[in-house]
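Inputs:
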Amino acid sequence: MDATSHITLASLAQQVLVGLSRTTILFIVSSGLSLILGVLRIPNLSHGSLYMIGAFVTYSAAVFIGGSTGFWLALIIAPAVVALLSLAVERGLLRFLYDREHLMLLLFTFALTLVFGDLVKLIWGSDYRSLTAPPLLQGSFDLAGLPFPRYNLFLLLLGPLVALGLWLLTNKTKIGKLAKAAAVDREMVAAMGINVSWVFAAVFCIGCFLAGLGGALVAPTQNITQGMDHTIIMEAFLIVIIGGLGNMWGALLGALIFGLTDAIGILVWPQFAIVFPYVAVVVVLVFRPKGLLQSTW
Amino acid sequence: MKKCTLLVVGLVAALALLVGATAALAKPFKIGMVDCYSGPPSTYTNDVRDALLLAVKKINAAGGINGRKVEVLTRDSKFKVDLGLAAAKELIMREEVDILVGTINSALALAISDLAAREKIPFFVTFSKSAKISGAKGHRYVFQISENTAMIGKAAAEGLAKLPYKKYWIAGDDYEYGHAVAQGIWDYLKKIKPDVKLLGQSWWKVGEPDFTPYITAILAAKPDAVIVATGGRDCVPFLKAAQATGFNKKVPFFMHTATELATIRPLGANAPEGVIGTSNYHFYYPNTKANKAFVAEFQKAYGRLPTVGALYGYITAQLIAGGYKKAGKVDTEAFINAVEGMVVPSPVGPVKLRAYDHQALLPMYLGVTKKVPMYKFFIGGDLVTIAPENAAPPVEAIKKARGK
Amino acid sequence: MLENIKNHRGLWVVAGLALLLAFWPSLVPRFYVYLVSLMLVTGLLATSLNLVLGFGGLYQFHHAVFYGVGAYGAALMIKWSGLSPWWGLLVGPLAAALLSLVIGIICVRLSQLYYGMLQISLGSLVWAIVFRWYSFTGGDDGIHGIAVPGAIASVSGAYWFTLAVTAACLLVMYLVINSPFGRVLMATRDNSERAEMIGVHLIGHQLIALVIAGFFGGVAGVLFVVVEGSVFPDMMFWTLSLEILVMCLLGGWFTFMGPMLGAAMMVGLRTVVGIYTEYWTLVLGVILMLLIFFLPQGVLGFIGAKRTPAMAHSRRED
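Outputs:
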C-alpha cells in the first residue's frame, strides 16, 4: 500500500499541469476578491454567490443559444450579467455603507449571500445542472502516456492572458490608476476633483465580473448546484490573505500555492490531501503575518 | 423606557402568537418530514417527498388512516444537523406528529433516530445510507427504507467477483459514506475472491472541485479496476472528469448509483460509457405492469421521471398505511407490531420489512452505463438483479453489530 | 445597556425577564421550553464571542471551534471514560479553554482580517481532525444518544440546568468586563498603541480574554450536549462561526446583552419562518439588510447605548 512507489517524472509533470489549470480558476476568482478588498475595503462574502450565479447563467445561456457558439457566447454573457447585478447592488445598496466598520460590511455581504442563495434556488430550482464543453475542448490528449484533458489546457492558456489583462487594466488605464491611487489614499483622489464613488462602482463591477468569469469557466467541469459558493469563497479568502490583501500578484502567488500543494499532495499523500491548503495558510501566516507580498492595507 | 417596553412587549406578543397558533384543532393523522430540500441533496429528496405525497393523496381518497385524514408537514434541514434536529423536535412537540420521515444526512438521521427512541415516535429513514441506522444503532422505533452501505457493499462485491479483475484501487469521498461503502465492498470481495489485491487508495473532500488530479494519480498506478466510493453531488463531476480524461476507457470502474437516473441524467448525451453501477430502481426496469403504472402516475403528477427516491417515498407510504390498517387503531406500539415483517407491493415487486432490524429488503440492480437511442441520457444496460437476501447482511451480522 | 442595568428601567426589564424565565416551563408547552433552552445556549455562545469581538476588538472569525471542542470534550469523556457524566461536563470547557490558549498564542500577533483568517485556518484544522478521526470522534456521523446525567436529561431538566449555568456565566462575564481588566481590554480595542504606550501588556490581556471566551464557548457546547444529546462536526464548521458573528452584530456588539438578544432573534426567526416557508434564509437576509441600514449599532445598541466606543465611529484607521 505504498502510494508513492508509482510516482514518475511524467506523472509529476502531469500533476503540476493539472494543478496549474486549477490555479487559473482560483486566480481569477481571488483576484476579483482581492481587488475589491484592496480598493473598497469590503470583505465581500457574496463573491462566492456571484461565482455560482456566473455558472448558472452560463448554463442557461449556453443551453438557450445552443451549440458550441452557445458556450463561447455564454462565457461573455455570464460575467456581464454578474457585473450588471453587482452594479445594481453597489449603486442601490452598498455605496451607502462605505463609511461603516469592516464587520458591518462583512455582515451586509453575508446577508447578500443569503438572498442570492435563495434567489438561485427560486430561479433554477434544485436539480443538478451539467454543461458540456464544445467539441473542440472535449476529451483529452496523450501526455507521456497519461491523459491530459483539453479543457484543462484551455484553462492553462487562459490563465496568463487574464493575468496580463488585469495588469494592463490596473497599470495602463485611467480607471486602473485611479483605483490604485484610491486604494492608497481616497481623500487625495477625491481632492483632485475625481468622483471616487464611480471609481468604486467600476472597481466593484470589475471584481464581480471576475467572479462571474470564474463561475463561467468552471461550469463545464463541475455540476452546477447551490452550495458551490461555499467552497470557493473560503479558498478565495485564504488565497487573498496569504498573497497579501489587495495585491494582484499576491493573488496569483496564493492561487499557485493552493493549486500546486493540492495537486502534488494528491499524488504524494492522498489520504491527507484535505488538510494541505489549511496547513499552507498557517505556515505562511506564522512566518509572514501580513501575507507574502506587499499588502495595500 | 419606551423602546425597552416596546421590545419586551414585542417579544412576548411574538411568543404568544406562536403558542396560540398551536391550539388544538380537529386532529388529522400527521406525518412529519425533515429533510434537506435545498442545495445539491434535494435532487434526491424531492422525489421521496413527492412520491410520498402522491401516495398520501390516494390514501386520503380511500378514507385516510383509520378514518383520519393524513396530513404531511415538511421541514427543510438545509443539510445542517442542528437545524434538522430542532425541526424534528418542533414536529414532535409542537405539531405532535404520529410519524417522522427523513433524511439524506446520516448524522441527522442518527440524531433523529436517537430522539425517536426517547420520544417513542416511529421514524422512517428514507435516504441515508448509514448501516448503523438499522444495524448497530437500530432500535424499536427506527425503520430504514433505503439501502445501506453494508447492502451496497455486499451487492457490489457479488457483481465484481464475477469480473476478471485482481488489482484494485479504492477512491472515494472522505467521509463516513465513502469509507463505509469502500470497506463494505472490499470486505465482501476479499471473502468471495481471496486473491484480489489493493494497490492503494485516494480520498477527496466532499465537493471536490476538480477530479482530474486524482484520476491521473490513479492511472499512474495502473490498477485493473477501480472502486469509486462517492455519493451525492460528487458523482456527476467525477463522471464528467472520467469522460474528459477517458478514464472509463482505460480502467473499468465501479460506482454505486452510476446507472441511477438522478446521477446520469444531468450528463445528457455526454456520459462515460461502460461504468459499472448499482441502483435500487430504474423507471424502465423491471419492465412490469406495476412499474409502468407507477412511472405513468408520477410523470402525470409532476411532469418528470421518478428516480430512486420516489421508490423509497412510495414504500414508506405503503408501510405506514398498511401497518395502521393491520393494527386497526392509531397506536404506535400496535403499529410497530403490525408493520414488522410486513410485505408491501411496490414497482420493483413485493418488498418485505425485515422484523428483526426494520430494514426494507430491496433488490439491487447491477449494470453498466449505456447509450440508447430512446432517451437523451444514458441508462443502465445489461442489468442483473441481485436478490434482497443476497444484498442484505444476515440477521446474525446485525445481532453481532448490536453486541448481542 | 451596560449602563442601563445599573439604573432602574434596566433593572425592571431584567427582573421581568428573569421572572418570566423562572416560570417558563409551567407556562408553555414543552417545545417552547426547548426553544428557549436553545436560545440560551446559542446566546451564551454569542456572548462569549462578543467578549473578544465587541469588547476586545479581535476578529474572532472561528469561535464555533470552541463550542464544538467543549461539546466533543464532554461527549467523548462520557463515551470513553466510564466516569460519572458530570466529569464530562467539566472537561469540555477546560479543553476549549486550553485550545483557545494554543490558537491564541499563534494568532494574537496578527490583527484584524489577518487574525481572523489565520484563526479560521487553525480552527478548520481542528474540524478536519474531528471530521476524519472515525474511530474516536465518530467522524461526520457524530455521536448520538449521549448519556447525560439523569437529573438534567428531560426537556425541563435541561432547561433549568441551562438557565442556571447561563445566568451564572453571564454574571461572571459581566463582572469580567466591568473589572479593571475589562476596562484595559476595551482600551486596547479603542487604541492599542496608546494602551501599549501607557504600559499595558497588550498580548497578555488579549490572551486572557481569549481563554475566558474559549472557556465560556466550551460551556455553551456542553449545554448543547445537555439539551440535544448529540454532537456532530457541523458544530465547529466555519459557517456556524459566521452565524454567531452575525448574532453579535445583529443584537449589538458593543452591548453586553446584545449577542444574547441577537441569538434569540436568529433561533426564533429560523424556527418560526422555517415552519411557513423553505425560503427562510431569504427572509433572514432581507431582515439583516434592513437592520444594517436602519440600526447600525444592532438592536440593543439602538435601544440602549448613548456611549459608543471609538471603534464604531471612526472609519477604520489603516
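Remarks. Chain B is about 45% helix and 20% strand. The longest helix of chain B spans residues 2-21.
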